[in-house]
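Interim report, section 4.2 (structural modelling).
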Amino acid sequence: MPAPSVTAPSLKADDLACLRGGRLVFAGLSFRLAAGEALVLTGPNGSGKSSLLRLVAGLVPAFAGTLDWTGAPGSIAYLGHQDAVKPALTPRESLRFWAATAGAVPTASGITAALAAVDLAGLDDLPCRYLSAGQRRRLALARLELGPAVLWLLDEPTLGLDAASVARLEARIARHRAAGGLVMLATHVPLALDGARGLALQDFAVDEAPL
Amino acid sequence: MRAFLTLLSRDLRLALRSGGDVAAVLAFFVITVVLFPLGIGPEAALLARIAAGVVWVAALLATLLALDRLFAQDYEDGSLDLLVLSPLPLEAAVLAKALAHWLLTGLPLILLSPLMAAMLGLQAGVWPVLVLSLLLGTPCLSLIGAVGAALTLGARRGGALLALLILPLFIPVLIFGAAAVEAASTGLTARPHLLLLGGCLAAALPLAPIAAAAALRQAQS
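Predicted structure of the assembly:
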């Protein structure tokens, strides 16, 4: 289990704006996220939930505004829409690879534990092409078990998950927060997250006006 | 370094497991070379004269064959996002992927090239120069190709665009490579051409990963 860093890291966004394909998706967005907190992004399709997560991850630059993450550079885990699962690799190989690229030293027992945590034990050595969509999603979620990440950015983490897996994810997020972790997630499915704050992205939509 | 080797071994494993890719490149190389005697006719002197150029052009086209998949699969399945976010510098990731591409295409082509040269009747004394020129030249092709593959990422008809973009950049490598063999077969020294090829490689090795990484970051946003 990755231990969170001693100094409590926090995320601070001020007056963020995001430009996608020549359209201002949202503007004037500010929020704070401290250790142990969770922020649930809601809003209709195209309101910029994924864009905001990609922006916080550092995959796309902000069009305006400032974003301040006080944690270490490698302490952000991003789970996008896609699972980044290679059909030809086995779940064990996938996790070993992602742990190494995330800067962690993968151990056989650590990977076994991560697979067990998402209830994929026993499927370790089956090529991922035989996994169902939900199982692939669970394998992607297992990446969170391996890295030293403190801030989790989850883009619709429940996509394709069954009820038991959703409950397991909720419990996992609660444990991560209890250990001082931060979670930002976009979802269309209501999730049971104690004391999570909401951020409705449609409130920051910009009226369609030519730039 | 660990992450670099992990990425390299993953790419090799993926290519070998999905199979076919390496075999297709090699088959393409052999068939392209075989087409020349069929088209030109079995005149031994003429074939020996053009052998070096034919092997080089065929190697160049075969290299191009697998290039458009270099980043495309990682881009489509979201792996590229994670590579960009990884503590491993993206330049190093590009280098690992270009190296994997070379090990899977360049190196097998080099191993096959004496056979092709023999088939075209290139004098045996020149084969070492041909192999050496390919050894210096094909890594350049993989590196320059990585830049093209990164630039055309996400483009429709990316494969055709890639060829248009990259083939002109392959020209210097082709000229020096073919000229080295040409010089050796006419009894001149191949050294200056080989040195120039080495220079191309020395320039491409640091510059191409930087350019390709910049293009990949651009493709993300």
